């Protein structure tokens, strides 16, 4: 006998599990299907983000930053460290513990909110507006019936042709988080979020890291002034970033990988690496979903086609997160998941793509929201800019981290904030004030007039807002 549900969510990543919880809160009989397994074969909901993405990478970034501080930064504070050592196995073990805590937390939330959880791979069998039959292929195969289906199956790492991931020598984000010994030479193809974060982790732990990026500019999606500052700071730390590179043949040997490439000048090189991380983007995951079996439409890039409300071409079938258009960000998926659950309930769920923050968790961190200066120029928008360096911030001096700046972009006539860009300490936390301000269509003058605690890093935000009107007080 099949079990019937009002809402079935396929995928338990940030978009999926949040959609399921919100649907349950709204009174729907809800189920969530997810196939991730832990080391013992048990359920590990949370998707790529929790298992091999956002959460474990931040754990390793934090651990590696502590190691670098002890190795290079403590002396300035009068802290003398002798006999410093690295227990990589324990560091990776801590990362795994953090992941498990998050997995268990999601299972607890399902139980708390009365969401039925099915461990296995979910796929369409048949259905229409009256209901959809969903097969769960797990330890014991079963079938459930859903009135509404939310597809949240996420994305997979994109491999280079001829260089498939073996997760031993040629690594995706999954393998990059589980290297058992610090490589002497590490190659990274792709200077995006994953490439820079993983490159930073292993550089801090002692690897010689070479980053190969096809684009001629560093972090092309980031405000140019901020990107240049970030490149300068990361290069100074020892991250070798090569731009305008054309990748040739990649050969995996017994214990190393060779990469043939030409640089921006057209000169040929061969890089020999102990490990190679390939981070050239991600592809939507519709494998095994049987989209074609029920006529679920995909677009030309393989994403599930949806409208502005995340509706697919099938009645009562929705899709959110990495498997649909828009930025591949966990928090974007969460917002879409909540919005869809509320739309199913007849409410007006809302996601504002213009105020979704972006963060790169390098050191210094890079965070931004809204338009970049180059976008405003391209759109012919008249704007004013204000910047403030952390070098002039008292709290940053006390922390011993004065790198970077805060940058405000505001409409030249109305003073409405159009974009805020930060490179520096705790940028991931500081950007939230800018997101709130932009959601309420605040002006730079509004932020400039708000009292910020002293001493705090947030004062740099206030000062950058003041600088839009050329009246910064501490620089």
Can you give keywords for this protein?
475 residues, alpha/beta, FAD/NAD(P)-binding domain, 3 domains, 5-stranded mixed β-barrel, 21 strands, flavoprotein, EC 1.8.1.4, FAD/NAD-bd_sf
Topology:
Layout: E1 3-10, H1 14-25, E2 30-34, H2 47-52, H3 54-73, H4 88-112, E3 116-128, E4 131-138, E5 142-151, E6 155-157, E7 170-171, H5 173-176, E8 185-189, H6 193-204, E9 208-212, H7 224-237, E10 240-242, E11 246-252, E12 257-262, E13 268-273, E14 275-278, E15 282-284, H8 291-294, E16 317-319, H9 330-344, E17 358-360, E18 365-370, H10 373-378, E19 383-389, H11 394-399, E20 405-411, E21 417-424, H12 427-439, H13 444-449, H14 459-468
Parallel strand pairs: 1-2, 1-5, 2-3, 5-16, 7-14, 8-9, 8-14, 9-10
Antiparallel strand pairs: 3-4, 4-5, 6-15, 11-12, 12-13, 17-18, 18-21, 19-20, 20-21
Helix pairs in contact: 1-9, 3-4, 3-6
Catalytic activity: N(6)-[(R)-dihydrolipoyl]-L-lysyl-[protein] + NAD(+) = N(6)-[(R)-lipoyl]-L-lysyl-[protein] + NADH + H(+)
Family: Belongs to the class-I pyridine nucleotide-disulfide oxidoreductase family.
EC number: 1.8.1.4
